Amino acid sequence: MTDKLDPRVFHLLSYGMYVVSSKSGKKINGCIVNAVAQVAATPPRIAVSVNKENLTHDYITKSGIFSISILDENTPMKFIGRLGFQTGRDVDKLRDIQYELGTDDCPVITEHSLGFLEAKVIDQVDVGTHTVFIGEVMRGQRLREGTPLTYSYYHQVKRGRTSKRAATYMPPAPKAEPPEKISKVQEYQCEVCGWIYNPELGDPDNGIPPGTPFEDLPEDWTCPLCGANKAQFKAI
């Protein structure tokens, strides 16, 4: 057995897709995270890992409270892109997104959410690029029936990308050259978030049927994940 770390082993761990939200005074914000876990039952406690560069991290540190919304499997990619690939320092991320103000006016995302938990911070651990906040659950509710969105489904079915601020982010491995490049379909990658447009798959959620070449996409078509325009894609 070798002592070398194979980063692929981390892919065997299970993750979900969540929105963690918090506030600072009257300001509110939220972001996508995938590292959330219940760590105790009595009293109920949860842990969430948040990148230190995220505005939501600052808000949790200041207010000592946060909420976790559990996303549905059918959550649109643009919803994830807005909360996961944009920053609250530049845009109002919760504008036009359904939420309610919960305990101590902490925002709770209800749109595309199967349920939520509200917690107050009782401890936190510095783990380098991220802080793991330990919260004692103050309130929780199931909102509707459905299947939770897993990180695996997000990647394999929805073709989502990993934000560089995610707790599980790893730089992509060099892409091997296909043995017959001439027969390979030309793909295009978003320079903002890394989402890849494959003409064979198209973008059915936004009216682009499979088999549509990139050149034939409407000029007003945008990245289904982050909203970048067509000019911000490059051939790969």
Structural notes for this entry:
- The chain has 236 residues and is mostly beta strands.
- It has 2 domains: 13-156, Pnp Oxidase, Chain A (Roll), CATH 2.30.110; 181-235, Rubrerythrin, domain 2.
- Helix content is 10%, strand content 32%.
- It is built from 3 helices and 12 strands; from the N terminus they run E-E-E-E-H-E-H-E-E-E-E-H-E-E-E.
- Strands 2-1-5-8-9-4-3 form a 7-stranded antiparallel beta sheet. The chain has a 3-stranded antiparallel beta sheet with strand order 11-10-12, with no helix packed on it.
- A hairpin with a 2-residue loop joins strand 3 and strand 4 (44-51).
- The protein is globular and about 55 Å long.
- The model has no long low-confidence stretch (mean pLDDT 88).
Q: What is the compact description of this entry?
A:
10% of the residues lie in helices and 32% in strands.
Keywords:
single chain, 236 residues, mainly beta, Pnp Oxidase, Chain A, Rubrerythrin, domain 2, 2 domains, seven-stranded antiparallel beta sheet, three-stranded antiparallel beta sheet, 3 helices, 12 strands, 10% helix
Q: Largest sheet at a glance?
A: 7 strands, antiparallel
Number of strands: 12
End-to-end distance: 37 Å
Q: Which structural class do you get from the secondary structure elements?
A: mainly beta
Radius of gyration: 19 Å
Q: At the first level of CATH, what is the class of the largest domain?
A: Mainly Beta
Strand order of the largest sheet: 2-1-5-8-9-4-3
Q: Any idea how many domains?
A: 2
Kindly report the CATH topology of the largest domain.
Answer: Pnp Oxidase, Chain A
What general form does the structure show?
globular
Please report the number of helical segments: 3
CATH architecture of the largest domain: Roll
Point out poorly predicted stretches. Answer: none
Strand content: 25-35%
